[in-house]
Amino acid sequence: MTTIVRETKETKITVDVALGKGTAKVDTGLPFFDHMLSTFARYAGLDLTLHARGDLRHHLMEDVAITLGTAVQKVIPATAARYGERTIPMDDALVQACIDVGGRFYYRGPLRNKLYEHVMRSFCEHAKVTLHLRILRGKDSHHVTEAAFKALGMALRDAMVDSGVVFSTKGTVALEVK
């Protein structure tokens, strides 16, 4: 289990995360965001406990994404399968997520909701993952956003499977700072 605490003048966030069964206990004070984070954890197979409070919705959601991304980066096995791809249908929505957990940040969306787009970008940057997210269909923003979190979770679950070997022609995908 990895625990990350982030405290600023604007927010206080505690995240506990481990590879597991997808159980989540999330409390940000934002019901839909809590639902998205719990959904992500379930589909990613992460056991997640997250408590967060903040002054503004934007600050809270951004700092949660930063903290969660940092925690997830720490639980990715060194010998992870590395790549994952899932396409999720949800009512009118169809969303594809393609991920590489090899240690380099890149994000390509977009989600239609700018705040959730920012959450995805901040998560990817701090998890040090590459994510291509494609909205193939969908008009209802709730369905599109939820399908995106589910697709990300499932793709991440596939990418984090321990393959037993480092999946890189470079021989390593880890960066150690001393």
TrEMBL record:
Pathway: Amino-acid biosynthesis; L-histidine biosynthesis; L-histidine from 5-phospho-alpha-D-ribose 1-diphosphate: step 6/9
InterPro entries recorded: IGPD_sf, ImidazoleglycerolP_deHydtase, ImidazoleglycerP_deHydtase_CS, Ribosomal_Su5_D2-typ_SF
Alphabetical keyword list: Amino-acid biosynthesis, Histidine biosynthesis, Lyase
Gene3D superfamilies, alphabetized: Imidazole glycerol phosphate dehydratase, domain 1 (3.30.230.40)
PANTHER family according to UniProt: IMIDAZOLEGLYCEROL-PHOSPHATE DEHYDRATASE, IMIDAZOLEGLYCEROL-PHOSPHATE DEHYDRATASE HIS7
Full protein name: Imidazoleglycerol-phosphate dehydratase
